[in-house]
Amino acid sequence: MESLRLAVAHRPPLPVPAPAHLRRRHLLRLSDPISLPRTPLSLSSSPAPHHHRHLSPTPPRRLVLPLLASKAPDSNPEPEPAPGGAKLVPLAISLAVGLAVRFLAPRPAEVSPQAWQLLSIFLSTIAGLVLGPLPVGAWAFLGLTAAVATRTLPFAAAFSAFTNEVIWLIVISFFFARGFVKTGLGDRIATYFVKWLGSSTLGLSYGLTISEACIAPAMPSTTARAGGVFLPIIKSLSLSADSKPNQPSSRKLGSYLVMTQFQASGNSSALFLTAAAQNLLCLKLAEELGVVINNPWVLWFKAASLPAIVSLLATPYLLYKIFPPDTKDTPDAPALAEEKLKRMGPVTKNEWVMIGTMILAVSLWVFGDAIGVSSVVAAMLGLSILLLLGVLDWDDCLNEKSAWDTLAWFAVLVGMAAQLTNLGIVSWMSSCVAKLLQSFSLSWPTAFCVLEASYFLIHYLFASQTGHVGALYSAFLAMHVAAGVPRVMSALALAINTNLFGALTHYSSGQAAVYFGAGYLELPDVFRLGFITALVNTLIWGVVGTIWWKFLGLY
Prior knowledge:
Largest sheet: none
Main location: plastid
Shape: globular
GO molecular function: malate transmembrane transporter activity
Oligomer: single chain
Family: Belongs to the SLC13A/DASS transporter (TC 2.A.47) family. DIT1 subfamily.
Number of helices: 26
Number of strands: 0
Strand content: under 5%
Structural class: mainly alpha
Region (Disordered): 39-60
Distance between the termini: 98 Å
Protein name: Dicarboxylate transporter 2.1, chloroplastic
Radius of gyration: 29 Å
């Protein structure tokens, strides 16, 4: 106590406060982020020498903050911002593709100069989507600008696809997916399946796979299902089993669960028309080519149901044999799920609203044609209910950047593809392919297999399923029709094929990036098992699907 009195008695006088404008400037500098220890501050946790230093006559208060503020940038240097602008090599290659077609390739006599110029711009845009000189939306906008600036397309024609009903249906589907994540409904459904089927590793995998198939028709984004619902559950279960990412223990449980969910997600997306955004885009592009499918939701489900269910049931068992987990039994998983459900509490009001809205939307998607309600109107009604009742607010919609990005570049690609069809490019290409196939004397079933295999394997060059659809779906559908393949069968087969190649590589889809980024998968395993699973899926769809589609009268 005596030393404390001495310290106070010898304390120098307090400094005169600085003028207000200097204080503000000083505070602004000190408001920068400063790293502080996580240990709670307490007298008992401070060492003895530190305690005595604070009782010395020298006042530390005037020195601590300026020293901390000046040292913060040195101890935690800010990373230099990445250079902006386009990547020069991909930019040069993408532009070279279009320029070579426009000025070096001979224009066929039956193709107009306007159509040929639009084809060159379209091919340059597609090359940019593959090589990535800029983000997808930015590069698509540049392609649209080139089409308008060169007077290849008038402004109204270039932007006509922005009023496309299917594109807006895709945008609204992103908002539905956000509602599932925000309310926790998707998490609750998946946790129930873990509780019911999770006593073994194989049963746990089946529970997760079946739960995704159940919520897929009302949550039309495979990426959102992966990142917002299933990966968090898988990580929690894996860590509870001491299976950690980027460590040898990942093979205990996490690697198998992540790989199985990743490979099975394609069949969940293929099972329902509204389970993935690219499904809707495929049918819209088919309609542009004159392939109109009546009551598409029902016909799609009928066509996909049997082969997709067989593939969903086969995938967990296949991977259990060729990529087995070290842990075969998970007796704690149901208890963990039960505990999580207790923490979640009873179903909330917002979850009930989400359930009711999705039942309404799916019902209108199924029966809407009979009562004159289009799919996009059904989606608009559902979103309006979610906004009115506060399940979603407008900021949720504004923050869904992927939805607005998709609107921009989908509309550009769909608009260009439609104009290529109107200008005769697609019919010219299909006639050329038909002549080529006739020269090989291929029957339509053989041509169908060759074209489907080519469409599938080309995806190794793409980092997006929807980008692949925008670039190649129309051309391949025209080739199918020119080869004599039944039109509706061609449209459905290509669309379903688009879902199945989403697990080929770690970059083949949005969900691929989500699952691979979790740290439980090795890159060689992704390529090896992606190819093996793709072969098995092809065999199932080729055998079961062929028999089933014959029974349905698709050919």
